[in-house]
Design goal:
The chain is an alpha+beta fold. The chain has three domains: about 130 residues, no CATH class; about 160 residues, Bacterial polysaccharide co-polymerase-like (2-Layer Sandwich); about 150 residues, Helix Hairpins. Helix 2 runs parallel beside helix 14 and helix 7 runs antiparallel to helix 10. The relative contact order is 0.17.
């Protein structure tokens, strides 16, 4: 067990080591105050941007994203390296900080700027109406610089947002129009392929199967009629051959009729015409020719009739061969119908896919053109600078109070630790209760310690030291806090000489 086991022991320890404790405590507090007041002051300024919603809701814009995602995109755009470099060049930040690298400057500016979103009450976070306003807060070592940084970022959001949206709309239009032209060309090529393939395989198309079935029935009927006509012609040919062979014994009935007709015509001509008339001469010659060459004339007639029948038979056989060829073509087309159907469906499916893609591109292009029209009429979602940042009159609530409390607490803890360690190095029983705890028995009698002259002088020197220590500490503390007229504190000097700009 140590020498400190009760509150009375702790108070006794502090009283005995009071000069050491006060020295460490006051030095620690003064050092903390110096570090706090010598550090640069931080001023904070905020700009408020309101999100103005249009009367016509644009579902294709970026505002359809959730509020958290939209604020994140805005922050990423503002905190990009190129944008931060432009801010530093425009405002002339870090002009006197030649030892800082570009990365350090960008990191300092990025850490000193904060973007927060204000959500509308009673609205879902995923709704596009959830974002009500954006607050841009910047910190700097001078009030004017803090306000300038916040306003610059706010102007970037308000002024560049419309330009960025125009650029996105123009890029979207260029892409969609080029894609629409490309798809239109592909659709035209695919349509030509389908038409050419359908023309090459017209009989094998699914739409031609019913017509082919009807054509097959017609071919069957025509072939039946043609076979009947062939049989009739062949029968007539045989009867003609049979009649031609009998003309060598007796004249045919048609020749006798011709002779009788010639005699009647000659008798009528003689009754009406002169004996030497040319018509009578012609009729006499014709009658003489029929009487003298009747067998030869009959043979010519039979021969011509046989040639005519043969020509008809050849024509019918040719037509029948054409019908057979057409039937073979139909059979081949019907055999190729499944393959042609599959290939045609594949080509049509590709054509429909291209057409669907074309319709989707056209729909998106119409949406983009609608966005452009709404933007030109100021009917789209936009950012409005509701409140510009003003130079603050007082520094921002920093960690100075917290640092002061921590400095006092740390100094007190260090002083008590040193006093305790010194007490551990020289353990002495100073009171009866300590003796009783150490030995287990209480002393019979306890005499108080009487101070000698040496002890009294030491106590007076101790009191004087404590008084001087407290006086000097209070003076230094007031000087550090700037409460002594005519004597500027280190905090005032650092504020006048330091700064981001």
């Amino acid at each position: 067990m140590g020498p400190i086991q009760s509150l009375q022991d702790l108070i006794s320890l502090i009283w005995r080591r009071l000069p050491l404790v006060m020295t460490i405590l006051i030095l620690g507090v003064l050092i903390s105050f110096y570090l706090i007041v010598s550090s640069p002051r931080v001023y904070q300024a905020s700009a408020v941007i309101q999100l103005d919603m249009p009367a016509v809701m644009d579902q294709g814009a970026d505002s359809s994203l959730p509020a958290s995602r939209r604020v994140q995109l805005i922050e990423q755009r503002l905190m990009a390296r190129a944008n931060l470099r432009d801010v530093i060049e425009r405002l002339g930040l870090f002009a006197d900080s030649h030892g800082l690298s570009e990365t350090d400057k960008l990191a300092a500016l990025r850490n000193s700027t904060r973007i927060e979103s204000i959500t509308a009450p009673g609205v879902s976070v995923d709704s596009r109406l959830a974002l009500a306003a954006i607050v841009i807060t910047s910190q700097a070592e001078t009030p004017a610089m803090a306000a300038a940084i916040a306003n610059d970022f706010a102007d970037s959001v308000v002024n560049r947002d419309r330009e960025n949206r125009k650029v996105r709309i123009r890029e979207s239009q260029d892409y969609l129009r080029s894609e629409e032209a490309r798809l239109n060309e592909q659709i035209a090529i695919q349509e030509r392929k389908v038409v050419e393939y359908s023309a090459r395989n017209e009989d094998a198309l699914p739409s031609s199967q019913a017509f082919l079935q009807t054509e097959l029935a017609q071919l069957t009927e025509l072939e039946t009629t043609m076979d009947r006509n062939l049989m009739d012609l062949q029968r007539e040919r045989l009867s003609l051959e049979a009649g031609g062979s009998g003309t060598e014994v007796r004249p045919s009935a048609s020749l006798v009729q011709q002779i009788r007709s010639a005699e009647i015509e000659l008798a009528q001509a003689r009754r009406t015409l002169a004996p030497n008339h040319p018509e009578i001469k012609r009729l006499e010659d014709n009658l003489e020719r029929l009487n003298s060459g009747g067998g030869s004339g009959a043979s010519d007639v039979v021969r011509r009739q046989a040639e005519l029948i043969d020509a008809q038979l050849a024509q019918l056989n040719q037509q029948k061969a054409g019908f057979a060829l057409r039937r073979a073509e139909i059979d081949q087309a019907r055999a190729r119908a499944p393959q042609v159907t599959r290939e045609l469906e594949t080509m049509q499916r590709d054509q429909r896919r291209l057409q669907d893609r074309y319709n989707e591109i056209s729909r998106q292009l119409a949406q983009v053109e609608t966005q452009q029209m709404l933007m030109e009429n100021d009917q789209t979602e936009r950012f409005v600078l509701l409140e510009r940042a003003l130079p603050p009159e007082y520094p921002a609530l920093s960690n100075r109070k917290k640092s002061a409390v921590m400095g006092v607490g740390g100094s007190l803890a260090l002083a008590l630790t040193v006093a305790f360690l010194l007490e551990m190095l020289n353990p002495v029983l100073r009171r009866t209760d300590q003796f009783a705890r150490a030995t287990g028995t209480r002393p019979v009698i306890a005499l108080p310690y009487r101070l000698s002259e040496k002890d009294l002088r030491a106590r007076r020197r101790r009191n004087i030291y404590l008084l001087v220590l407290l006086t000097v500490g209070l003076f230094v503390a007031l000087w550090l806090l700037g409460r002594i007229p005519g004597l500027p504190s280190p905090g005032v000097v650092s504020t006048l000489t330091d700064g981001m700009g």
